[in-house]
Amino acid sequence: MDAATLIAVVSILTAGLTIAIGSIGPALAEGRAAAQALQAIAQQPDAANTITRTLFVSLAMIESTAIYCFVVAMILIFANPFANRAIEAASQGVGG
Amino acid sequence: MDAATLIAVVSILTAGLTIAIGSIGPALAEGRAAAQALQAIAQQPDAANTITRTLFVSLAMIESTAIYCFVVAMILIFANPFANRAIEAASQGVGG
Amino acid sequence: MDAATLIAVVSILTAGLTIAIGSIGPALAEGRAAAQALQAIAQQPDAANTITRTLFVSLAMIESTAIYCFVVAMILIFANPFANRAIEAASQGVGG
Amino acid sequence: MDAATLIAVVSILTAGLTIAIGSIGPALAEGRAAAQALQAIAQQPDAANTITRTLFVSLAMIESTAIYCFVVAMILIFANPFANRAIEAASQGVGG
Amino acid sequence: MDAATLIAVVSILTAGLTIAIGSIGPALAEGRAAAQALQAIAQQPDAANTITRTLFVSLAMIESTAIYCFVVAMILIFANPFANRAIEAASQGVGG
Amino acid sequence: MDAATLIAVVSILTAGLTIAIGSIGPALAEGRAAAQALQAIAQQPDAANTITRTLFVSLAMIESTAIYCFVVAMILIFANPFANRAIEAASQGVGG
Amino acid sequence: MDAATLIAVVSILTAGLTIAIGSIGPALAEGRAAAQALQAIAQQPDAANTITRTLFVSLAMIESTAIYCFVVAMILIFANPFANRAIEAASQGVGG
Amino acid sequence: MDAATLIAVVSILTAGLTIAIGSIGPALAEGRAAAQALQAIAQQPDAANTITRTLFVSLAMIESTAIYCFVVAMILIFANPFANRAIEAASQGVGG
Amino acid sequence: MDAATLIAVVSILTAGLTIAIGSIGPALAEGRAAAQALQAIAQQPDAANTITRTLFVSLAMIESTAIYCFVVAMILIFANPFANRAIEAASQGVGG
Amino acid sequence: MDAATLIAVVSILTAGLTIAIGSIGPALAEGRAAAQALQAIAQQPDAANTITRTLFVSLAMIESTAIYCFVVAMILIFANPFANRAIEAASQGVGG
Amino acid sequence: MDAATLIAVVSILTAGLTIAIGSIGPALAEGRAAAQALQAIAQQPDAANTITRTLFVSLAMIESTAIYCFVVAMILIFANPFANRAIEAASQGVGG
Amino acid sequence: MDAATLIAVVSILTAGLTIAIGSIGPALAEGRAAAQALQAIAQQPDAANTITRTLFVSLAMIESTAIYCFVVAMILIFANPFANRAIEAASQGVGG
Amino acid sequence: MDAATLIAVVSILTAGLTIAIGSIGPALAEGRAAAQALQAIAQQPDAANTITRTLFVSLAMIESTAIYCFVVAMILIFANPFANRAIEAASQGVGG
Amino acid sequence: MDAATLIAVVSILTAGLTIAIGSIGPALAEGRAAAQALQAIAQQPDAANTITRTLFVSLAMIESTAIYCFVVAMILIFANPFANRAIEAASQGVGG
């Protein structure tokens, strides 16, 4: 198993697990915030504007942690510096 | 076991686990948000419009984390850059 | 163990686990939403129409994450691009 | 261990685990929905018709995720395309 | 270890685990539904008929997921197509 | 390690685990149902007959999943078709 | 490691784990039922007879799942058909 | 590693784990029942006699599952039929 | 690694784990019972005598499961029949 | 497997897991804080300004732990001192 | 690896784990009892004497399970009979 | 695999896990404290100053445990004494 | 790997895990007791003296289990009898 | 792999895990205590001084368990007696 293959294998596995595990927390957190927002609207319909505005700011903040994971997964698949270096090395020889 | 086979094996395994694990969080979160929305409607039927609108925006936001996982799974199965490169390499020789 | 067999083994295992793990979240979430809908109807029978309509939209949305998993499982069993490629390779030789 | 045996072993193991793990979520979810329906009937006996109708629709929807798992398990035992291909290959030779 | 033995071992292990794991969810769910039914009867004795009827329909539906598991376990022990094929092969030679 | 020994080992291990794991769910579920029945009697002593009758039907239904596990464990120890076949094979030769 | 030793080792390990794991569920369930019975007596001292009678029937039913485990453990230690067969085989030769 | 040593090692390990794991459930269950009894006495001091009598019967019943574990552990250490047989075999030869 | 050393190693490991795991359940249970007793005294100071007497009986009963574990651990360290036999065997030869 | 490849493999795996695991806690915590803020606004609309200001300071503080993880992941992928040193060593020889 | 070293290694590992795992349960239980005592004092300041006396007896009882673990850990480090015997054996020869 | 590479690999892995695992606790704790602060402000707007001041002191104290982890991770990546020593040793020879 | 190194490795690992695992329980327990004390003071400010005195005694008692772990960790690092003996043995020869 | 390298590897891994695992408990406990303090201030603003003083003493006590872990981690990285001894041994020879 040469270096480029090994790096490819690990990158695939890591990218999948990163986004899979990394989506659990944000999803649950958004669900909780949204659920509470709905309850808050039902309890105080007059404050619906303040509530939805605060909700969307919060959802964006929570979504950011999911996006960190997505960014890392995408970097690992499409812009992986270790994989690029290994492929170059394989096609030229090291220091060739 | 040549490189293309190994990458195929890991891609299959990762794609399945990614969508399987990645669907747990969003599903539970959507369930929670929907449940709270139903309770909110029952509590304040007059605010049903605001509630369902906020619910659908929230569901879309939560669904996005499941879609990240689905996108990664689909990329790994149908547009896997590592697999394509390995197949090319196998059919031409490296740098042939 | 040749390449086609190995890919078959991993595909079977992954397909089963994908749908098995992937059905836990949606099922629990649908149960929660449905339970809350029933409670909401009992609490506010006049809003039964709004409640059941919102419930069915939510169930469809939650079911979608289970369907992502089912789709991936079916692709892995019946339309697996890696398996097809390995079988072709085995019956023709690589690039034969 | 030849290819057909290996595929058989993995298929048996996967089929069992798929239905076993896949029955946990739907069962718990149906239990929750049913329990809430019973409470709702006790709370609002006049709405018993609407409640049981909504309950049965919900149970059918939840049961569908268990049925996905059962379908995959049955496919793996009785209509496994990988196993069929391996058996044919063993009885004819590959491309014989 | 010949093929028939290996398949027998895996079938035994899988059959046991399938019914063992598969009985947890339905049992807990039935317990929950039954407990709620008893509470509902205590709360609204006049609706006892509707409640017990709904309970039994629900229990049957939940029991179905346990029965899926039991069916798969029984198939694996007494009507296992892979085991039958392996025994035939061992007693005749493959394609003899 | 010959085939009969291996099958015996796996049967013993599986039988024990099946009944051990399989008794957790039903026991907890029966405990929950019984606890709720006792609370219901305390709350509505006049409905004690209806409650205990519903309780016993429910306990029987829940016990059924424990009995599935016990049946499988007993089959694996005393009427194991794979073990019988392996012992016959060992004492006669295959097809002798 | 001959067959009889291996079977002995597995039987010891399984017997211990069976009763150990199998005592968790029933014990917790009995604790729950008993706790609820005590609360019910405190709440409705006049119904103490009905409550304790229902409690003892329920405890017996729950205890039954612990007894299944104890029976299997005892069978594995003192009346293990696989162990007996292996010892006979070792002392006589197979079919001697 | 001869047979008697191996059986001794497994017996020690199993005996310890059996009583260790097997004491968790009963202890928690007794704690729960006792806690509820104390609450019941505080709530209804006049029924203290009925409550403590029911408590002690329940504690005895719960303790029984811990005692099953202790019995199995003691059998494995001091009256292990497999170990006795292995020691006899070692000191006499098999069937000597 | 000779027999006596192996048995010593396993005895040490098992003794430690037995008392470590076995102290979790009783400690938590005693904490629960004691906490409830304190609450009961605060709620009904006149019944303090009955409460503390019932508490101490219950604590003794719960402590018994911890003592089972301690006894097994002490037996394994200081009065281990398997270890004694192995040491005798090593110093005399088997049946010497 | 040379040193640079090994370090690349471990860096990829660690970077993914770091951000994946590290996003769970902050996401859940932000969800909780946001949910409570929404409830607080509904309960006391006049204090909305104080509440949202406190919320945003808290979210920033919580987000900081996610950012620690993101920073470590980015360092491991793009500015890994160990990887740089290994690559230099490979292209020059050690101390060349 | 000679016998004394192996026993030393296992003793160190076991001693640490024993006290580490064994401190979880008692600590949590003492925390619970103490918390409840504080609540009880706040609720019924006049019974502070009875409460603190009962608390200290309970804490001593709970602490005893932690002390069992500490005793076993100390025995394993400073008065380990297996280690002493192995060291003697190493310095004299067995039965020398 | 030479010493410097091995230490690099372990340092990378440990640094990532340290900050990933170490961010869970502080994040959840800060979320809890912040959520309670928001609720407290809503309940007692007049004490907002005391509440936010106490909140920020507490957040700083909780953050300190996350910073311990971040410090250890940074030390392992950029100022690792073991790695420095190994690199010096590799470039000079030991005691050269 | 010689004896002293192995013992050093195990001592380091055990010392770290002992204090890490052993700090979870006491910390949580102290947090719980402190939280309840604060609530008790808010509820009954006049009993603040009794409450804080009881709190500090309880914290000291709980801290003791953390200190057991710290003591064991320190002994393993700085006063490890097994390590001392191994080092002596290495520098003198056994019984030299 | 020589002794000094092995000890370095284990020290790095243990130091990271120690502070990572060891920060979970204290962080959660401080979060809980702080949250309760904030609630107590909101409930009884007049007792704010007593509450914050008790809070800070408690936080210091809880922080101490995190500091134990940090101290052990720092000792393992910067003042590790085993590592120092191994390095001396490597640079001088044993007893040279």
Describe it:
Chains A, B, C, D, E, F, G, H, I, J, K, L, M, N: Belongs to the ATPase C chain family. Chains A, B, C, D, E, F, G, H, I, J, K, L, M, N: Residues 13-76 form the V-ATPase proteolipid subunit C-like domain. Chains A, B, C, D, E, F, G, H, I, J, K, L, M, N: It is a multi-pass membrane protein. The structure is a homo-oligomer of 14 chains of 96-residue chains. The first copy, chain A, is mostly helical and 96 residues long. Chain A has one domain (3-88): F1FO ATP Synthase, CATH 1.20.20.10. Chain A is 86% helix and 0% strand. Chain A is built from four helices and no strands. Chains in contact: A-B, A-J, B-C, C-D, D-E, E-F, F-G, G-H, H-I, I-K, J-L, K-M, L-N, M-N. At the E-F interface, helix 1, helix 2, helix 3 and helix 4 of E face helix 1, helix 2, helix 3 and helix 4 of F.
Which features would summarize this protein structure in a list?
homo-oligomer of 14 chains, 96 residues, F1FO ATP Synthase, 86% helix, 0% strand
Topology:
14 copies of one chain form a homo-oligomer.
Chain A: H1 3-22, H2 24-43, H3 48-78, H4 81-92
**Going by CATH, what is the homologous superfamily of chain A?**
F1F0 ATP synthase subunit C
- Name the chain pair whose interface involves the most residues: E-F, 51 and 59 residues
Which CATH architecture of chain A is right? Up-down Bundle
Oligomerization: homo-oligomer of 14 chains
Radius of gyration of chain A: 21 Å
Instruction: Let me know the largest β-sheet of chain A.
Output: none
Domain tally of chain A: 1
The helix-strand sequence of chain A is: HHHH
Question: What is the fold named in CATH at topology level of chain A?
Answer: F1FO ATP Synthase
Number of helices of chain A: 4
- Uncertain stretches of chain A: none
Indicate the overall shape of chain A.
rod-shaped
Structural class based on helices, strands and sheet pairing of chain A = mainly alpha
Measure the end-to-end span of chain A. 21 Å
Helical proportion of chain A?
A: over 70%
Strand content of chain A: under 5%
Number of strands of chain A: 0
What's the mean pLDDT score of chain A?
89
